[in-house]
Write a structure and sequence with these properties.
Elements: E1 4-12, E2 18-27, E3 32-36, H1 43-51, E4 58-63, E5 66-67, E6 78-81, H2 93-103, H3 108-122, H4 137-149, E7 155-159, H5 167-184, E8 187-192, H6 195-201, E9 204-209, E10 212-217, H7 219-224, H8 229-234, E11 241-250, E12 253-258, E13 261-264, H9 267-272, E14 283-288, E15 293-294, E16 307-319, E17 324-329, E18 334-335, H10 337-342, E19 351-352, E20 356-360, E21 371-377, E22 382-384, E23 391-394
Parallel strand pairs: 3-8, 3-9, 6-7, 7-8
Antiparallel strand pairs: 1-2, 1-4, 4-5, 9-10, 11-12, 11-14, 12-13, 14-22, 15-21, 16-17, 16-21, 17-20, 18-19, 22-23
């Protein structure tokens, strides 16, 4: 077993395209790290560079104590599990799992023992004589993992291994992958485009964008304390609601104006976020998590000074049984995905009057078409600079335990 240490990895292709830029990451022995981001963000490029399938333009890669920049893939002691199972259809499960050992001329008796051990770990003992065509998707994926773990590599690399499975089986296999990785205690880097998969599986999550690492931290850190608008919008389901707002000073107090509506910012929030005062008279981006919006109980007075009111039109109510998703319109433009991706200075064409989402209690009395007034947890709001996308105050300014690991990049610097 070994740790992975990547320092300043950069990949520049022959045509000048930058696939990865100054990528630095440490993965300790036994740690499970997920790498997530939209298509084309560089996550698979980073994985392939660690595997030795892509040449490193610059930077240093170590596995254990050895620099492996120029070491051939077969000599790096890494095992890779791909999106495509790539099983040999004419071989049995046992033969597929044992194939890497056969290629290394491992004696037959030792090979059989290692295959049986891997099958026990994966729950495949009763399937060793079957061919891949007689297996379910989840069983085929476990065979692919068995082929990777049978030789006990120092490092596991996984490239979207569950993406071909149906939704229910993916949830089951997440737990299986985690169980196997914990049992083996091997440093693992897992690439996925699914942020739910990333946060439910990873000890730490690395968010990528445009070939650069945006933020690296625990799922809780990324959700509660995003360093920029891109991370804030990418992590969380339903996604954070993002609107242009304006900070206004009135009677010595700071207020947030969203369209024609105003929310008073409590002194505690302003004190915790001194940079907000510099935005008085200026616009910025305000982020509201769906769970920061609730529908007040008409039988009780307002619960706290932390709450303010925001009026909207409910367009659609989704009843999930244990909670309701209320899709609403404030009557002001909401930042679209394109605007968030662009981050800086979005034009009028890149915003749209799109529905926001609130996650409310199932007992809430709301129907499609209602005019509703949400309670807003004001000191839970997020604020981002309109030009850079970087966080400037609010909930995320009070992050605790920040480290170089947690905050490793500012947006579009």
């Amino acid at each position: 077993m070994a740790r992975i240490s990547a320092q300043g990895l950069t990949k520049v292709y022959a045509d000048g395209t930058v696939g990865l830029r100054d990528f630095s990451l440490e993965i300790e022995e036994g740690e499970f790290v997920t790498l997530v981001g939209p298509s084309g963000c560089g996550k698979t490029t980073a994985l392939r560079m660690i595997a030795g399938l892509e040449e490193i333009t610059s930077g240093t890669l170590k596995i254990g104590d050895r620099v492996v920049n120029d070491v051939a893939p077969l000599e790096r002691d890494v095992a890779m599990v791909f999106q495509n199972y790539a099983l040999y259809p004419h071989l049995t499960v046992a033969e597929n799992i044992g194939f890497p050992l056969e290629m290394r001329n491992v004696p037959k008796a030792e090979r059989r023992a290692k295959v049986e051990e891997a099958a026990r770990v994966l729950g495949l003992e009763g399937y060793l004589s079957r061919k891949p065509r007689n297996l379910s998707g989840g069983q085929r994926q476990r065979v692919a993992m068995g082929r990777a773990i049978v030789r006990r590599p120092a490092v596991f690399l996984m490239d979207e291994p569950l993406s071909n499975l149906d939704a229910k089986l993916r949830v089951q296999m997440r737990a299986e992958v985690q169980r196997i990785q914990r049992q083996l205690g091997v440093a693992t880097l897992y690439v996925t485009h699914d942020q739910t998969e990333a946060v439910t599986m990873g000890d730490r999550v690395v968010v990528m964008r445009d070939g650069a690492l945006q933020q690296n931290g625990t799922p809780h850190e990324l959700y509660e304390h995003p360093v920029n608008m891109f991370v804030g919008a990418f992590i969380g389901s339903p996604a954070m609601n993002l609107y242009r707002g304006e900070i206004v000073r009135a009677d010595g107090q700071l207020e947030l104006h969203i369209g024609s509506q105003s929310l008073e910012l409590p002194p505690e929030l302003v004190a915790r976020s001194p940079r907000l005062a510099a935005y008085a008279g200026r616009s910025l981006i305000v982020g509201i998590r769906p769970e920061q919006l609730s529908l007040p109980d008409p039988g009780n007075p307002p619960r706290s000074k932390r709450l303010a009111a925001l009026t909207a039109d409910a367009e659609l109510v989704e009843d999930l049984g244990n909670e309701l998703f209320v899709h609403f319109r404030l009557g002001v433009p909401r930042l679209s995905e394109n605007a968030v991706a662009a981050t800086a200075g979005a034009s009028d064409e890149s915003v749209e009057a799109d529905a926001g989402v609130a996650r409310v209690a199932p007992r809430s009395r709301v129907r499609s078409g209602d005019r509703v007034t949400f309670d807003v947890v004001v000191d839970g709001l997020y604020f981002f600079d309109e030009d850079t996308g970087a966080v400037v105050g609010g909930r995320s300014s009070s992050r605790r335990g920040s480290t170089d690991n947690q905050i490793v990049a500012e947006a579009n610097e």
